[in-house]
Every structure is written in C-alpha cells, then in structure tokens.
Design brief:
The protein has 455 residues and is α/β, with parallel strands linked by helices. It folds into two domains: 12-176 and 287-448, FAD/NAD(P)-binding domain; 179-283, FAD/NAD(P)-binding domain (3-Layer(bba) Sandwich), CATH 3.50.50. It has helices spanning 20-31, 83-86, 110-123, 216-226, 334-349, 358-374, 389-400, 407-422, 434-444; strands spanning 12-16, 35-39, 130-131, 134-142, 146-153, 159-164, 166-169, 176-177, 191-194, 208-212, 231-235, 244-246, 253-256, 259-262, 267-270, 275-277, 280-283, 287-288, 294-295, 301-303, 306-308, 323-325. The strands form six sheets. Strands 9-17-10-11-13-12 form a six-stranded mixed sheet, covered by helices on one side. A five-stranded parallel sheet has the order 3-2-1-7-22, with helices on one face. Strands 6-5-4-19 form a four-stranded mixed sheet, with no helix packed on it. Strand 1 (12-16), helix 1 and strand 2 form a beta-alpha-beta unit. It starts with 11 loop residues before the first strand and ends in an 11-residue tail after the last helix. Bound molecules: flavin-adenine dinucleotide (FAD). Flavin-adenine dinucleotide is lined by residues 16-22, 39-42, 47-49, 70, 72-73, 79-81, 86, 135-136, 170-172, 174, 217, 293, 327, 334-335.
C-alpha cells in the first residue's frame, strides 16, 4: 500500500492494546476518518496504569508458562513527570480540584493517571470501540497487503479472525522482564524477584536485599524497601568499580558497583570488593520488547532489544505504512510522543502524508544503526531517545503539519531532570519551575476539554 498524494482514504485499522498508546492511536486514526477496532486483553483500558496487587506465578518472570500480569505499577507509585508535561497535547492533564476522588498533586498517583486516561477515552468516544478481554494471538500478512488478526476472548476459547488494511501495535513494553546475568546465580540459594512483580515493601521486612538498577523505579523501590528491610544494597552499572557509599538519609542503604559473583552459601560479591549475605535479589533491570503474536516472515525482528528495521521507530519499510508501532522509544515523555506518532500513522494511512521510498527508508535506518555503532552505543539502546526526543517530536510535528513541542514543555523536562537529581527524595513536592507551570496553564486555555475551561 504505497500512498499517493491527494487521495484521502479510509482504512480498516486494528489497534492492539488500550493503554495510553492504543487510546491516542485510535483517537487520531478516527479523527483522520479511519475505521478502528481496539483489541484489549484486559478488562479495562489504561494498560500499565491499571494497578493490581496480583503478581505473576514466577516472581522473576523467566518461566514461559507463568501466569501473566500486565501492569508493573507498585502501590506507592507517583508519576516521575509533572502532569503538565506528561499529558497529551490535545488533552491537558490538569488537576480536577473539585472532585475529591481525584489526586490534584503535580506528580500524582498511578490511580489519577488511570482516571485521566479514562476521561480521555470517554471524551473522544474511544471506549466504545475497544473490545475488552480480547487477546490478539496472531497478526500476519494475507493477500493484497492486508492483515489477518486472530483473537480470542477470555470467555470463549474459540479463536476468531478478521481482516484489516492496517495494524498499529501498541502492546506496551513494560511486561516482559529483563534480568541481570549474575555468575553463580544457579546455585545461589536466596529469592529472586523482578520489579515487574514488586507491589509493596512488606515482603521485604527484616530482609537483606540486593537491588540491581538505578533508573527511576529502582530509586523509588529502594526507598520504599529501606523503610522495612534490614539492609538494602543497590548494585549499579553507572558507578565506578570501587564505589561503596552509604546513602545519605538512611542508615541501612548502600550504593555499590555491579555484582561480581554469587555463591551457594548465600553470599554475593560486588566489584567494589565487599561481600554481602543476602536474602533477596530484586532485579530493577528493565524489560524486553515482546510481540509474541506478530508474524512478519522475519521482516521485523527483536535483536538485543532492537526492534527492527524500523523507520523512525515506527514503520518497517517493507510493510509501511500498513504495519506500525506506537510507543517504542524510551527515556522520553511518552504521551505527547505517542500522540505525534499516531498523527503521522493516521495521516499516512489516509494518503495525506507520504513516506519516502522503501530504499530511502532503509538507507536512513542503516545510517542510524551505523551512527549508533560508531558512537559505541549498544543495540539495546536503539530506542533510547534520551537527549533527542524533542528533535524527534518536532520532526514528526512538521510532517504532520502541527505545531512543534511547546517551549515550556521542553524547558520543564530539563528542569525536572535537574530537580530530580538535586532532590531525589522530595522532587515530587518541591520545585523551582513554577513559572513554567504558569506558562503551561496559559497554553492550556486554548483547550476546552478536561475541565480546563470549567475552572
Ligand atoms: C513503573 C512504571 C512507571 C512509569 N511512570 C511513568 C510516568 O511517571 N510518566 C509517564 O509518562 N510514563 C511512565 N511510565 C511509562 C508508561 O509505560 C507509559 O507512559 C505508557 O503508559 C505506556 O503505554 P502503552 O500504551 O505503550 O503500553 P501499556 O500501558 O503497557 O498498554 C499496552 C496494552 O496492550 C494490551 N495488550 C498487550 N498485548 C496484547 C494482546 N496480545 N492483545 C490485546 N491486548 C494486548 C495490554 O493489556 C495493555 O492494556 C511508567 C512505566 C512503568 C512501568
């Protein structure tokens, strides 16, 4: 399906997943005149923001036959981005002070984010097109460049199928755990758990815990656990080998370099030379991209967490634009980026926007991969947009004919990173970028939704 200019087309599109990515994709596709079905295996929308106390049967997530739980939220989680920056551009995430069910804080709880996503879905009529408790088990090409989607509902075990012109994959990437490789771990006698299955600190009471990782959730969880555990030892890849530091404000938490080995007497040795006899190793080591339903005859693969080849993290050139992915980049502000990716996909499917040729897209991808290699960036960082997310977003915005990211949002992101670094314990409640909050609210006045104009 090669788009031609000036022939608006309405496609039948399947969206897989009703998390933030799937919801905004469905909204943008419908806005562009496409017919959309959203498949969601859970019983409600919101994806990872649907907190559940349930955990998987294998706490470290390695058993392929384990019972599955989608969400990785823990009970105490508050957002690590301020609501002004985090929300969709067309639907600002403002506090609803007059409803006491809501959490008006700038960095609210996971429940507030879920309520916001539900509001979004209701506002734009997306809820009605979601088929809940319907798991997609197969997506594959059929004749004429169309896609067969096979799915089964939770109640009936019968697998059904439907044909679509296009498929947008929005199944999330915080569900399939990645774990650290630790020499000797097979004979180490303690318990192992991945942060995907972390909910509350109570199971860690009086335990000696080694927590691997240094991303935002690792930091949150180490603080959560330090309140009840006997000792918390954080193993981080981002510090020098000789590091061993008591963490300020805690008398039971230390920062170490990575683990060197583990032993059958329960001891764990760090590269810094220290040895700890631990009860639990908690892997806060991230997740793998996982598309068990997708059959592309080897066109799209996942290799060391690189999903590829993908043009600008969205389209495999050979299958563009009928197959696309929303939400693969990380170290980004996700919702507004999902929104722009979705506008791009929707515009391409209707022929309003055109793609470069397959060859040009492949060239672009090859050049990107070479650049990563030359810079010594490992494959698994392919989708880490780190410092260039706004450049990427603005590139998408220009293609879609919509305004680039707001200056206040860009500045706020930088301020938040600085503040988080300076005040790791209190950044969610103390900040110095109030002037940017005011600018954001000025901007939000343009939108009549989500109670903004009701105030
Ligand atoms: C612990 C944690 C904290 C985070 N904190 C923040 C934060 O503070 N701010 C922020 O902006 N972002 C945060 N994020 C990132 C968050 O993941 C994104 O903001 C966003 O919610 C991801 O949306 P998604 O739609 O891509 O994926 P998900 O929310 O994971 O949704 C995917 C959906 O697809 C469904 N699905 C999967 N497979 C199938 C299938 N085969 N058939 C049918 N349905 C299927 C799932 O059930 C799910 O509903 C956090 C993530 C985690 C894990």
């Amino acid at each position: 399906m090669q788009p031609t200019h000036h022939q608006p087309a309405s496609r039948n599109v399947a969206v897989i997943g009703a998390g933030a990515g799937g919801l905004v994709a469905a909204h943008e596709l419908r806005r562009e005149g496409h017919k959309v079905v959203v498949f969601e295996r859970g019983d409600q929308l919101g994806g990872t923001w649907v907190y559940t106390p349930n955990v998987e049967s294998d706490p470290i997530g390695l058993d392929p036959n384990r019972t599955r739980v989608h969400s990785s939220m823990y009970q105490s989680l508050r957002t690590n981005l301020p609501r002004e920056a985090m929300g969709f551009r067309d639907y600002p995430f403002v506090a609803i002070e007059e409803d006491e069910e809501r959490d008006p804080r700038r960095y609210p709880s996971h429940r507030e984010v879920l309520m916001y996503l539900k509001d979004f879905a209701i506002e734009f009529g997306v809820s009605e097109i979601v088929r809940f408790e319907t798991e997609v088990v197969f997506v594959g090409l059929v004749e004429g460049g169309k896609w067969k989607v096979k799915f089964k509902s939770k109640r009936g075990e019968v697998v059904q199928d439907e044909i679509f012109d296009a498929v947008v994959v929005c199944n999330g990437h915080h569900t399939e755990p990645r774990v650290a490789q630790i020499p000797g771990i097979n004979t180490w006698k303690g318990k192992q758990i991945h942060s995907h299955n972390y909910r509350t600190p109570e199971p860690f009471r009086d335990q000696v815990v080694i927590l691997i990782g240094s991303a935002t959730s690792a930091i949150d969880i180490s603080r959560d656990i330090a309140g009840v555990a006997k000792e918390v030892h954080i193993a981080s890849r981002s510090v020098a080998d000789e590091t061993i530091e008591k963490q300020p404000g805690y008398n039971n938490m230390w920062l170490h370099s990575m683990i060197k080995s583990s032993h059958d007497d329960g001891s764990v040795a760090f590269q810094d030379g220290s040895v700890v006899v631990a009860d639990i190793i908690l892997h806060c080591t991230g997740y793998k991209y996982h598309f068990p339903f997708l059959e592309t005859n080897g066109i799209v693969t996942v290799d060391d967490n690189r999903v590829g080849p993908l043009y600008k993290h969205v389209f495999p050139p050979a299958l563009a634009p009928s197959l696309s992915f929303v939400g693969l980049p990380w170290k980004v502000v996700p919702f507004p980026e999902f929104e722009l990716q979705s506008k791009w996909i929707a515009g391409l499917l209707s022929n309003r926007i055109a793609l470069p040729s397959k060859e040009e897209m492949m060239e672009d991808i090859k050049a990107f991969y070479s650049l990563l290699e030359e810079s010594g960036i490992p494959k698994r960082y392919t989708h880490n947009l780190g410092g260039c997310q706004f450049e990427y977003n603005d590139w998408l915005a220009a293609l879609c004919g919509c305004p680039v990211s707001e200056e206040w949002r860009k500045k706020m992101y930088l301020e938040v990173s600085k503040n988080r670094h300076a005040r790791p314990e209190t950044y969610r409640d103390e900040w110095e970028d109030e002037h940017l909050v005011l600018q954001a609210h000025e901007d939000f006045k343009k939108y009549t939704l989500n109670g903004v104009t009701k105030k």
